[in-house]
Structure formats: C-alpha cells, structure tokens
DNA sequence: AAATCAATTTAGCATGGGCTAACTTTTTGC
DNA sequence: GCAAAAAGTTAGCCCATGCTAAATTGATTT
C-alpha cells in the first residue's frame, strides 16, 4: 500500500538537499547552545569540561566548536573561563528547548517509551518545519485534553 | 506545561550524541543508495550527472561520494560507466525507501501538506528508531481503516 | 609559596563532504 | 569517421568536526 508519495520534480530535489545540508550545519550549533543553557541552569555555569563530558567528545573538540560559535555570535568566552550565551545564543537556545519539548511530548503522546522518545527527539528536532511542529503541538494538546 | 521530559543522566548524554553522530555519518550513504535505486527505476540507470543534478552538487562531489560508497561496499562502478548497487546497497535502499514512505505517509496522515511532508520526511527518516517507525506505521494504518 | 592537579588551550592530524579548474573519455551529430 | 558536446575524472583547495599529545593556566592543598 503506502499511498505513493508525490514524487518531487527534479528541480525540487536539489533545493531539498541543499536545505538539508544547511539544516545539518545548524545541528551542532543548536545542540551546543541548548546544552550550554542547560548547564547554566543545572550547574550555575557552562564549563568546557562539562560540555565535553555530556557530548562525549574531548575538551579540544569543545574548544574548537566554542570558537566557531563565538565567531558566529552565539556565545562569548574568555580564556580559561566559563562560557556564556549571547542574546542570539539565548534566543536560539530558548527556541530549541521549546521545539525539543514539543517533539518529545509528541512522541510520548504517541505512546513511545521515555528513553526512545528522548533519543529520537534529539535527532528529529532539527528536521521539523514550523508547520509540522505546530501539528505535533496540537496533536499532543488534543490527546491531553481528552481526544 | 509541556510535561517535563525525563532528564537523561549525564552518562546517557554522551551515548546519545555518539549515536547521533553515527546516524549522521549514514545519512549521505542512505540518501545516495536511495537515489541510485530511484534513478535505476526511473531512468534505467544511475549516472553521476543525474545524481549531481538531483542532489544539487557538482559531478566532482558525486565522484568523491561514490568512491566512498564503493569502498564501503554499497555500490560498484567502472570508470565512465553508470553506477550499480551491490546487494548490501540494494538492501539498504529498500530499507530506506520503506522507512521514508512510512514517515511520509505518517506526516500526511497527520494532515500535513504534501510538499512539507516530503521535505520533513527527508530529514526525519534518518533519525527514527525502529520503535518509533512502528508507531508511525500503526498510526497511519489506523487513520486509514477509519480511526 | 610551591607543588600538584584539573582545566583549558594549542598544534598537528584525519575524515567527510563540499567546491573549481583542468583534463580525459565517451557519446553524438554531421 | 571526425569534431563537438556531454560526461566523468583528477588535483588541489576549503571548512566542519572529530582526535591525540603537549603546553599552559588556574585552583587546591599542604
């Protein structure tokens, strides 16, 4: 069965994949600002060592990435000090947290296990359009207020 | 509101992100074998020029990628000739096509526009666990057979 | 205050996945 | 059958994202 997806025209393919590549470029940025925001809440500050531990990468990698985020205006940091979000970084973190929560809640509303919902949300959140996110949100809401 | 996601323990974070990085490493491979399979069906063969056009990249990039896929055992090709899937490549393409269709159908079942469903499916499909995929499939089925 | 330990940074490397420009091979059209 | 066009390949470049090893800085402890 599986009702035959509308085949995108050739011309659309290229655009689709270009947008996907862009999306991927933002993923690491989003994961970092989200995690930095979490750390500031949970531990009072965001240290490179904590980021390294949570992402499962080396401190050197964190350093690299933080430099990129700083270059791109999402964080500020001084040598040997902890890491701060700029306004842009905070705004992005807020957006990401909200989006993550909506995706997570949606997966839970569908009946998925918390562990799986958490993992899948982490992957899916970066690839959900505003429209789809809104549909997810409404669906969860409907389930909560009693179908 | 937004029912408070279970916070993964610190130890789980690293594993989550390691798996996400793995998932990303497979995305391009999956997109390529899927597209190669499509081209063989649609045009009788998969040429580098068609892949380049559909992905919106240069022929040189396609060449690079095909070399990697060949190294990894998913495709076979001879210089200046078209590209073939190995058994492993075909199996992966089949799996991806099915998964893509399930995600697409699910988004459609949720009421999303075909264009948006197609784009979001392309991003989401690589990040859906077997469990979530099964829930998607059942949901779509339920909607079809009349709530 | 010095020594030690933890955290951070730097240097140098690899791979993936893009690019352009130049070149070779294959296909096509006369 | 040859010339031009199309397709494919190669070389050399770039950036993102990872790594290890070594150097440096900051914090702690005696």
From TrEMBL, chains A, B:
Alphabetized SUPFAM superfamilies for the sequence: Winged helix' DNA-binding domain (SSF46785)
Source superkingdom: Bacteria
Entry GO terms, CC: cytoplasm
Subcellular location: Cytoplasm
GO molecular function, one term: protein dimerization activity
Keywords: Activator, Cytoplasm, DNA-binding, Manganese, Repressor, Transcription, Transcription regulation
Domain HTH dtxR-type: 25-86
InterPro entries: DtxR_MntR_Metal-Reg, Fe_dep_repressor, Fe_dep_repressor_sf, HTH_DTXR, HTH_MarR-typ, Iron_dep_repressor, WH-like_DNA-bd_sf, WH_DNA-bd_sf
PROSITE patterns membership: HTH_DTXR (PS50944)
Pfam family, one: Fe_dep_repress
Subunit text: Homodimer.
Homology family: Belongs to the DtxR/MntR family.
Function comment: In the presence of manganese, represses expression of mntH and mntS. Up-regulates expression of mntP.
Name of this chain's protein: Transcriptional regulator MntR
Originating organism: Thalassospira profundimaris
């Amino acid at each position: 069965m599986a009702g035959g997806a509308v085949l995108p025209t050739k011309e659309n393919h290229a655009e689709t994949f270009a947008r996907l590549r862009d999306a991927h470029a933002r993923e690491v940025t989003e994961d970092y600002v989200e995690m930095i925001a979490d750390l500031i809440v949970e531990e009072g500050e965001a240290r490179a060592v904590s980021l390294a531990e949570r992402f499962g990468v080396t401190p050197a990698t964190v350093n690299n990435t933080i430099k990129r985020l700083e270059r791109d205006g999402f964080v500020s940091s001084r040598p040997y000090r902890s890491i701060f979000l700029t306004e842009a970084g905070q705004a992005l973190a807020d957006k990401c947290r909200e989006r993550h929560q909506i995706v997570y809640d949606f997966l839970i509303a569908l009946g998925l296990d918390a562990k799986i919902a958490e993992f899948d949300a982490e992957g899916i959140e970066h690839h959900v359009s505003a429209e789809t996110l809104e549909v997810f949100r409404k669906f969860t809401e409907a389930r909560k207020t009693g179908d």
